[in-house]
Amino acid sequence: ARILIVDDVPANLLALEAVLEPLGRPILRATSGEAALMQLLTYDVAVILLDVQMPGLDGFETAATIRARPRTSEIPIIFVTGHDDEFRQARRAYALGAFDYVTKPFDHDVLRTKVGGFVRLYEQAYELRHAREATHVREVCMAVLGHDLRNPLNAVQMSAALMARAADLPEHHRKHVGRIADAAEQIGRAHV
Question: pTM higher than 0.70, yes or no?
Answer without folding.
Answer: no
